[in-house]
Amino acid sequence: xxxxxxxxxxxxxxxxxxxxxxxxxxxxxxxxxxxxxxxxxxxxxxxxxxxxxxxxxxxxxxxxxxxxxxxxxxxxxxxxxxxxxxxxxxxxxxxxxxxxxxxxxxxxxxxxxxxxxxxxxxxxxxxxxxxxxxxxxxxxxxxxxxxxxxxxxxxxxxxxxxxxxxxxxxxxxxxxxxxxxxxxxxxxxxxxxxxxxxxxxxxxxxxxxxxxxxxxxxxxxxxxxxxxxxxxxxxxxxxxxxxxxxxxxxxxxxxxxxxxxxxxxxxxxxxxxxxxxxxxxxxxxxxxxxxxxxxxxxxxxxxxxxxxxxxxxx
Amino acid sequence: xxxxxxxxxxxxxxxxxxxxxxxxxxxxxxxxxxxxxxxxxxxxxxxxxxxxxxxxxxxxxxxxxxxxxxxxxxxxxxxxxxxxxxxxxxxxxxxxxxxxxxxxxxxxxxxxxxxxxxxxxxxxxxxxxxxxxxxxxxxxxxxxxxxxxxxxxxxxxxxxxxxxxxxxxxxxxxxxxxxxxxxxxxxxxxxxxxxxxxxxxxxxxxxxxxxxxxxxxxxxxxxxxxxxxxxxxxxxxxxxxxxxx
Amino acid sequence: xxxxxxxxxxxxxxxxxxxxxxxxxxxxxxxxxxxxxxxxxxxxxxxxxxxxxxxxxxxxxxxxxxxxxxxxxxxxxxxxxxxxxxxxxxxxxxxxxxxxxxxxxxxxxxxxxxxxxxxxxxxxxxxxxxxxxxxxxxxxxxxxxxxxxxxxxxxxxxxxxxxxxxxxxxxxxxxxxxxxxxxxxxxxxxxxxxxxxxxxxxxxxxxxxxxxxxxxxxxxxxxxxxxxxxxxxxxxxxxxxxxxxxxxxxxxxxxxxxxxxxxxxxxxxxxxxxxxxxxxxxxxxxxxx
Lengths: 314, 245, 289
Description:
The structure holds three protein chains of three kinds.
Chain A: H1 2-26, H2 29-55, H3 62-78, H4 84-106, H5 111-130, H6 135-138, E1 144-145, H7 152-174, H8 177-194, H9 199-225, E2 227-228, H10 230-233, H11 237-249, H12 256-274, H13 279-293, H14 297-304
Antiparallel strand pairs in A: 1-2
Chain B: E1 16-27, E2 30-41, E3 45-49, H1 56-63, E4 71-76, E5 79-80, H2 86-92, E6 94-96, H3 109-114, H4 122-133, H5 148-160, E7 166-170, H6 178-193, E8 197-201, H7 205-211, E9 214-219, E10 222-227, H8 229-233, H9 236-243
Helix pairs in contact in B: 4-5
Chain C: H1 3-35, H2 42-60, H3 64-85, H4 95-117, E1 130-133, E2 136-139, H5 140-162, H6 164-174, H7 176-181, H8 186-211, H9 218-233, H10 238-258, H11 267-278
Antiparallel strand pairs in C: 1-2
Helix pairs in contact in C: 1-5, 1-8, 1-9, 1-10, 2-3, 2-4, 2-8, 2-9, 3-8, 5-6, 5-8, 6-8, 9-10, 9-11
């Protein structure tokens, strides 16, 4: 039974990847958009998972890294006419740098300190980008509208590659000593340190990697939207929705965010179409529900129940 | 003062692997450790005893770097360590266990052992240690599935993975049956023969008296006695501390 | 040297602003102290208190001053319900659980509020005008806020010090296992503390409705400020929260005067980051290990 489900899982994975790979070629634009957004949110959920899923440090400010990446890409294209692939990567780099600078003081803290500080960071960043101090760069509240001259196909595959890369990096982390140490930090940071695990350094590394992918995905998305502004770019939904996706699928797993992202984005899309105003309320309730009844997430629940192999490889 | 760095103190006797000098630590108005001083000889088992709340675990936490000292020095192999972080102290060769075992529950025994290892042959070493503790058949199990005694053994061998010279054990025999206790004490003696130094907190007097080369007694954060088991047993201050006036 | 009057002005005003924030922070600190939960929904309680006051005033002509008391009672019961049905279930589980749970609930509350109340910005213009106090113009609503804050905090202190339940709360904060052994029903204590926290937040919301703007997303802002304050004062210390709130109020006021007004929203993070780097245990907090 075990073996069968594992095989089914592998087949589903391949089928899913295949479908996502050919989506823009066979679907009409509206449906392809849906597929694109699935990839986008999977990227956000998966990147969030790299820090929060493995170390247990809940980052309530993930949108800040995504947003910084979006702005970096937008500005580099709008003001400096940077070639788009470089602009995308720059988004990731800026987000990673931001995480590094932030991480040194903020990761010294534990649990609620970290979570709420990151919440304040996200809010503060949003406000900062709207102030007149940064206006020359960010155009403050007006935002930046720009065109990139890239086709939808390119953006789609850019996002697909980002997701694939992020999942692959997560796999590498999960099956490595680095990943095991991150899990030890999540289990019991003090005990881990008393064994010689250099927790500050490891946390910052995970933080930076997580931010990079959020920034990269954000950068690509900014060229999709052709627009950035403080209110929409740093909106809290880009933190809450990926978190719920990752928790649903299973924090600390590799494919949890993929599963959660796909299923919940379809839900999200549905809500957007019918109950636009309440989409976050639904996710809020879903998160509360998950925490009360399925905190380990779907994938981990399957492993615990014996339906899936208890391996760190998924 | 805790702020000074002792880089290379020449110690009067190179047999003293750890020196605790006038260490003081307070939490708000509570003075947990008060001008405590003692030394540990290399290759010996030293017991640390005292009534509940005497400051024993706080002392461990100070040595292991969980907090810095307010005053005083802690010198390990000639270097001051009282300002270092826990992982730095572990790197220098001090390992510790906790009163309530803190193994990584959602990780297998094998993973628990290899997670902190830096050496090439860590898998072999882990298996060796599992053999030593008699846990090798359970290596793929989650640590949370072990019995309490087995977890204590795991915690002990886990510390050995990075080959520390000084090992701090916080109540290694507490809460487990006599057979297991003997097993653990045997292991400790074997390791001592192999060159390790131990500082053990224990409440079980038989364990302490029967196995320690020296005993340090704390009460209200102060050292009230230091000597062999025999000397301590008949020490007035110690009797007062445990049994009242 | 026109700077000095500005600084003086900002500091005095800051004390009044800080007192209102302090009312919010005290509730958050109480909940954390008793059950080690950082209640992210705390900000939403403020928001609900503010809207309650607004609608009571707008629809029923109820004097906002009375609404302060109404908010106290209504939010008390709301807090009670939320605690019993949700928060109590994650007590004893890792802190992540309560963080995520209260985060989810807060998102639900403010999004629903947004849908129901719309995002229009409101205010309760009841107490207009200002008075002169030690040479500085203070809005009357600030003075009211200060007065209410002092009243409620003093009442809380008296309650904690002299009443049976207050002592039970203090005992549970210090060591819940021992409290159980002493025969204290810690579950009831937790519910009480949570409900009190919500009540304080709600009454602060009523005050806030008269001093600043009301809109559904306002909760997060106050949460961030309250959290910065209790980190500054030391997690779990109520006196620390009070002193922290005055310092915070002064800092925010100064920032608002010297820098762009919007920068006051960046202040929570700046203070948090500074404290966490310099002295993580805050001014009065004990380092928990």
